[in-house]
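JOB MANIFEST
job_type = single_chain_structure
chain_count = 1
residues = 494
[input]
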Amino acid sequence: MSPLKTLALVASAVLLTLSPTLLPPFASAATLPTGDGSGSPGTDASGQDTTNTAGLPAFRDAVKTITPSVVNINTSRSIHADVIAPWSMSPFGRRQPLIVDPNGRPLQSPRMRQTLQQKSLGSGVIVSEDGYILTNSHVVQTADEISVTLSDGRSFAAEVVGLDPPTDVAVLKIGADDLLAAQLADSGAAEVGDWVLAVGNPFGLGHTVTSGIISAKGRTGVGVTHYEDFIQTDAVIHPGNSGGPLVDLAGRVVAINTAIASNSGSGMGVGFAIPANLARNVMDNLIQNGRMDRGWLGVYIQDLDAGLADSFGFDAKGVLVTQVISDGPGDRGGLLDGDIITHVDGEVMGSANTLSTTIGSLGNGRDVQLDVFRDGHMQRILVTIGRTGASAASEAPASLGVLGLGVRDLDQEVVRRHGLGVSQGAFVTEVDPAGLAARLGLRPGDVVLSVGDHDIADADDFYDAVARENLARGIRLLVESNGGRRYLMVRQSP
C-alpha cells in the first residue's frame, strides 16, 4: 500500500494558547554557483572555472525584483468554545479546582464559555501601485481583521475587495504610498522545466525564497478548488506561503501558491499554484464588480476515455457533451448531445475541467467559436456565452473535491425533470465510488440542503461552505434523497 498523501492549503494557523515549535536546523546538501544568470559557469578571482555545473542560473536578480512586492498577511478571528475549568490534584489524590473561595467552593463552573483569538499567517503580492494585493481566498475569507506587512516593515489594515472561493483567489486593498507592483507574466507561455521561485511568509518567518522548476501545467483533480488548472512545482512550499507568488527568473509572477501534496502535510512535496492568467481574470472581475461573474454554456460534460472516444470514431483530445440544456446558450448555438468539443477560440480542450474553467472565465454576451466533432466530421459553431452570476456549475467540474462529490445548481429544469420537492440546494451529479460521500450512501440525484448550519442556495454556495468547514472534525450535511431527508456526518479518516 502506498503511503497516505495529505493535501493541504498552505496557510498557517495557530491559537494564541499555543507555543511555536522550533524546527531542527537543516544542512545544505549543495551550493549553487553564483553566476550572472546568463548560463556562464562560476569563476574564481583568476577567471578559472570553479564549478562543473555550468548553466545553472543565479536567482538574485529575480529575488531583488519581486521582494518589494511580496507582503505578509496576518489575520485574526474570534472563536467561541466551551472549556473545562482548571483542576489540580489535592494532597489526598483527589481532583480539586484551582480557583476556590475561602470555603473551598469553586469560583468557576466546571465548563465555561470562552472567546479565543485565532491567528493565521499567509502571503500576498502587490499588483498595483494604488494598493491592490492578490492572495488566496482561504487566507482571508474567515478573518475578522486583516493586517498586511510590507517588505520595508510598514503595516497596514487591509480591506477585502472581493473573494472567489471557486478559484481560491482574493483581492485586498491597503492605503499605502510608495508601493512597487509586481508584473504578472503570461502563464500560458510558461513551459514545463522552467526555473521558478516561491516567495512568501512560511511559519511567520518573513520573506523566504525557495527554488525549483515547473513540473506540470494544467493539473486538475487535485481536490482543492472548484475550478482547477494548476501549475505544479517542486519548489518547496510551506504553511504560510499561501497567496505568495511563484515567479520566473525575470521576477514576474507566473502563479499564486495555493496548496501542497505531501506525506507530511507540509514542506517537501508537490506544490500547486493558480496560473497568473486565471488569477488576473478573477482579480479584474473582483476589482470591477466585487464578485466573479462567470460565463455559462448550458451543457453537461465529461472527460473522454479511450473506449468512449473509439466508440465515437474519435482519436484526438476533446470533451464529450452529455446533455444540452434546453434554451441555454449551447442549445441556441446548435450544440447537440454527443458532440465532442475540441477547441474554444482555437484553444485545445483536453479535459472537462479545462472547458469548464475556460467558459467560466468568459464574460456574458461574448461570442466564442467552438470546434466540434459530430458524426465523424469536424464542425465550427458560434455560441454566445450566457451568464450564471457566481455559478457555472452546468459545466460540471472534473474535480469532485475532498468529499468526492460533484454538484450543480438546482434550477427549474432539474426540479421538473427529477420530480423534486425542493427548489433550493445543490443537486448531486456525480459521486466518486471511492470517495467519502459514497461511503455514506450519497448518490446522483440527491440534493444537499445544508452544510453545517448554512443553508445551501446553489452549487458554488455548496463548495464555499465545504471549504469553510473542518473535514477532520466532520462536516454535517442535510440531504434530500427519494423524497426523504437525513443528516450525514462526513469525516476524514485520521
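[summary]
The chain has nine helices and 31 strands.
The chain has a mean pLDDT of 77.
exit_status = 0
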